[in-house]
Design a protein that fits this description.
mainly alpha; Growth Hormone, Chain: A
Length: 449
């Protein structure tokens, strides 16, 4: 009877892990995205001197946003180290608590008018803690889902963790949308703090779910066989250095989401005459589309030749992102909605597949560190800098054309780096999910198949 019960529990474990990954990442990304929305709408007014030019204040606000991205590789290294040594579950509990406390701290932080220069300093420090938390969260969540997945379903189960991003973004945007009816003075004074304070409740829910998790069998096996690496980061860089630098480029295109949300929200409401509530509604439509279509990227990559799937997914991006900027510039609500929803599809489907692919690139005893460090380096160099670069180009040129060009460059980088990666990792899911493998000796010497 006990054996039957154990078998039943084993069958439920993959879905429990997937749901726990989804709920936890939803909360983490909610916290991370509300900062971006607040940075676009109010942080320039709240945490910087009122005498600053509005464009400069917004630019500085986006720089504080970048601070979180700068900290993400540090989070990937710290929690990757412990995740590869003591397991995935413990690190995921810690990252969720860290994110919740830093987000609550931002919601309670006094304004520049109250404490002067300490306000932006405090904002940057709390944003750095957010970055460390989400930097450690992503890799662990993908792995707890993919390593517990049934055979041949690693990419599909990893997509549960990836769904937390659009879900968290959707939730964050919805909260700000509901607050959009507030008069602007009240919103700037205290209304923007509500989404940050609500995070405390969400974190408690996430902690309850994550504490029920058990460690993946793959990691249990590594610890039982004493194959744990003493310094995972050093081993990753020595054994798989080229793989790290190339996988760093793979997620580039997913960061165009900050062109659609953070940058476009600021641009549309400050220069094009869109109301705050109206443009948040446009973003909400796009996020609903992302939530619906994103898993199909994992399905497509799992069921057909992976290189062809990536080509089919990314090629439309070169047309749809410039089309989106043009549609927004017309001032037409339904044109903007349609174009933004269409532009969301390629990079969303790519994001749905990429977590599982990156997890397969590294051996299990180095997997948390390898994929987290690579992914978060991309966030540092590209993600946080995207709205800063876009706003600077807009300030300098007075037009949106170069911002559209950037989006095409992002897609090109992801396309070629992903095709490179697919030639240098073992055939995905050739073994049961989570089983350790060696990526063709060392990535630095591997040759294309």
């Amino acid at each position: 009877m006990q054996h039957v019960q154990t078998q039943a529990d084993d069958k439920k474990k993959p879905m429990r892990a997937a749901i726990a990954a989804f709920v936890g990442t939803t909360i983490e990304w909610y916290d991370f995205y509300i900062y971006g929305l607040a940075a676009a709408l109010v942080f320039g007014k709240v945490f910087f001197p009122a005498t600053l030019d509005p464009g400069v204040a917004t630019l500085l606000s986006f720089v504080t946003l970048w601070a979180g991205f700068i900290a993400r590789p540090l989070g990937g290294v710290i929690f990757g180290h412990f995740g590869d040594r003591i397991g995935r579950k413990t690190t995921l509990v810690i990252t969720l608590m860290l994110m919740g406390l830093s987000t609550l701290g931002i919601g309670l932080l006094p304004s520049y008018q109250s404490i002067g220069v300490l306000a932006p300093i405090g904002l940057v420090l709390l944003r750095i803690v957010q970055g460390i938390a989400v930097g450690g969260e992503w890799g662990g969540a993908v792995l707890i889902a993919s390593e517990n997945a049934p055979k041949n379903k690693g990419i599909l189960y990893a997509a549960f963790a990836q769904q937390g991003s659009p879900a968290g973004n959707l939730l964050a945007t919805l909260v700000f949308f509901l607050l959009g009816r507030m008069p602007m003075p009240e919103f700037v004074q205290w209304g923007w703090r509500i989404p940050f304070l609500l995070s405390a409740v969400l974190v408690l829910v996430g902690l309850f779910i994550r504490l029920q998790l058990s460690e993946s069998k793959a990691m249990q096996q590594v610890m039982a066989e004493k194959k744990v690496e003493r310094l995972p980061l050093l081993s990753v860089l020595r054994q798989h250095g080229m793989l790290v630098w190339m996988t760093m480029l793979v997620p580039t295109v997913i960061h165009v989401t900050y062109l659609k949300t953070t940058f476009a929200l600021s641009w549309a409401t400050s220069e094009l005459g869109y109301g705050r509530e109206t443009f948040l509604q446009i973003i909400l439509w796009a996020l609903v589309v992302q939530f619906v279509v994103q898993p199909f990227g994992a399905v497509l990559v799992s069921r057909m030749d992976k290189a062809k799937a990536i080509l089919w997914i990314l090629l439309p991006e070169f047309l749809l992102m410039p089309l989106m900027f043009w549609a927004i510039s017309t001032g037409s609500y339904w044109l903007a909605v349609t174009a933004m929803c269409l532009a969301t599809i390629p990079h969303s489907m790519f994001y749905g597949a990429i977590g599982g692919l990156l997890a397969q690139a590294f051996p299990v005893q180095l997997r948390y560190t390898g994929m987290s460090f690579s992914y978060q380096l991309c966030s540092l160099l590209i993600g946080g800098g995207t709205p800063v670069l876009a706003q600077w180009l807009l300030n300098v040129t007075g037009g949106i054309s170069w911002v559209a060009v950037i989006s095409g460059c992002y897609a090109l980088v992801s396309l070629f780096s992903t095709l490179w990666l697919l030639k240098r990792i073992p055939e995905p899911d050739a073994q049961p999910a989570g089983v350790a493998h060696t990526p063709l000796a060392a990535a630095t010497t591997a040759q294309p198949r």
